[in-house]
Automatic annotation (TrEMBL):
Residues 386-395, 403-414 have a biased composition (Polar residues). It holds the Pfam family UvrD-helicase. One of its GO terms (biological process) is recombinational repair. It comes from the Bacteria. One of its GO terms (cellular component) is cytosol. Keywords: ATP-binding, Helicase, Hydrolase, Nucleotide-binding. It comes from Zafaria cholistanensis. This is UvrD-like helicase ATP-binding domain-containing protein. GO terms for molecular function: 3'-5' DNA helicase activity; ATP binding; DNA binding; hydrolase activity.
Length: 414
């Protein structure tokens, strides 16, 4: 480890750490780049892999008594020059950012008081994720504060600059987060082309629900009708539905409308909403017969056939309540919008995006992933997710995006 420049005392403490907590205490107290090298080594990466990832160079051993070349005098560098050269190294850029050559540049940072401007800087490891060429979708994960959002912003900028005609979509879970991303992109590069709607060249930023609504509103009448029939059944094919957040109230109405025979553990809005989203919408279930056969992978609660029949009675009553109220939940909206996009492409009208970048992906539900999968399905396009995990750093790995747009979990160094 000394070849990588890790101080012997830090290396000794890391090797002596008997618990994970003790090891992380060492890495947290070490300079950033040394801590990252140790974390990579602990995760199974070789020293060479870790140094290459962080763009570090091996220390050259110093030799004593080497004869000086006749007629030459080594140029002595000043302390300022040594410090400046040190800050220019990749390892230093993990902790420091270059702001300019003049006093005015420093004054602007000090007096401007804009701490947000610093959030758009990348260190060398993040550059790899933002600038790299990825064959297919990839998943960027890490703990809170590890710079995943910054990587998403830079990745969007890179994709937009590589091809000015590209349609880059950046989405997240809420409208508030989306507005924050737009502001950060403008701060990163005021010259970036920000698209006004999906399908335009440039970078379009929008919350996932707003995006789904725009895609559905942009579909043709036949595409909407086919999508409603595919997701909600024939009874909804000609319905005019508007998004409504009161799904809990509608589940309560549905429970009081039918004789379902379910115990309290199942006869509650929380369980029913989760079952509806994870099983029914995710598999486009439209009938009792389909629901009785569909796998319920990962649901945890075992449902016998009679219980499934009871659950489906409530689901039918729920959908009837929506038809009467002419409403649709935002999760259903995502599923229907995804189906509309598939029908759009099948009719020859083409896709709306070339690249999809997702911030805070851990908040998305199955229907959202189905929707995004419908927007992105060609292998030459890019999809990148940045979910929050419990890890202490960021890492990227490829993940499958087939069928339901599933995600694989990634921990640091995986």
């Amino acid at each position: 480890m000394e070849e990588a420049g890790i101080k012997p005392g830090i290396a000794k403490k890391a090797l002596a750490a008997a618990t994970e907590a003790a090891f992380h205490k060492v890495t947290d107290q070490a300079p950033d780049w040394q801590g990252l090298v140790l974390l990579n080594l602990a995760a199974g990466k070789s020293l060479e892999e870790s140094m290459d990832e962080l763009r570090l160079t091996r220390r050259q051993p110093e030799t004593e008594g080497s004869p000086a070349i006749s007629g030459t005098t080594p140029e002595e560098k000043t302390e300022d020059q040594k410090i400046a050269e040190g800050f220019a190294k990749p390892a230093a850029r993990l902790q420091f950012a270059y702001i300019g050559d003049t006093a005015d540049a420093l004054r602007e940072v000090i007096e401007g008081g804009d701490a947000d401007a610093w959030r758009t800087f990348l260190h060398p490891e993040q550059h790899r994720y933002a600038d790299g060429s990825w064959n297919g979708p990839f998943h960027l994960s890490g703990g809170a504060g590890t710079g995943k959002t910054v990587v998403v912003l830079h990745r969007a900028k890179v994709l937009a600059e590589r091809n000015t005609a590209a349609r880059v979509l950046v989405t997240t879970f809420t409208r508030t987060l989306a507005l924050s991303l737009v502001q950060s992109l403008s701060r990163l590069d005021p010259g970036l082309a920000i698209a006004a709607k999906p399908g335009e060249s440039g970078i379009y930023v929008g919350g996932i629900d707003s995006l789904a609504l725009q895609v559905l509103n942009g579909a043709g009448a036949a595409e909407k009708q086919a999508a409603l029939r595919e997701i909600l059944g024939d009874a909804h094919a000609n319905a005019q539905l508007r998004p409504d957040m009161d799904s809990v109230g509608k589940w309560k109405v549905a429970l009081g409308t039918v004789d379902h025979g379910l115990e309290a553990e199942l006869a509650n809005p929380t369980f029913l909403e989760q079952e509806y989203v994870a099983v029914v919408l995710a598999n486009a279930v439209k009938s009792k017969e389909e629901y009785l056969k569909v796998p319920r992978v990962g649901r945890g609660t075992l449902l016998t056939r009679p219980k499934r029949v009871g659950v489906w009675k409530v689901i039918e009553a729920y959908r009837q309540t929506e038809r009467v109220a002419e409403s649709i939940s935002f999760t259903e909206l995502a599923a229907v919008a995804g189906a509309a996009q598939r029908h759009r492409e099948a009719s020859g009208r083409g896709s709306l995006v070339d690249h999809v970048l997702i911030d805070e992906a851990q908040d998305l539900r199955a229907a959202h992933w189905l929707f995004l999968r419908a927007l992105w399905w060609h292998p030459e396009r890019t999809i990148c997710s940045s979910p929050r995990t419990h890890t202490s750093g960021s890492t990227a790995r490829k993940f499958p995006c087939q069928g339901t747009g599933s995600r694989s979990s990634a921990a640091r160094g995986a």
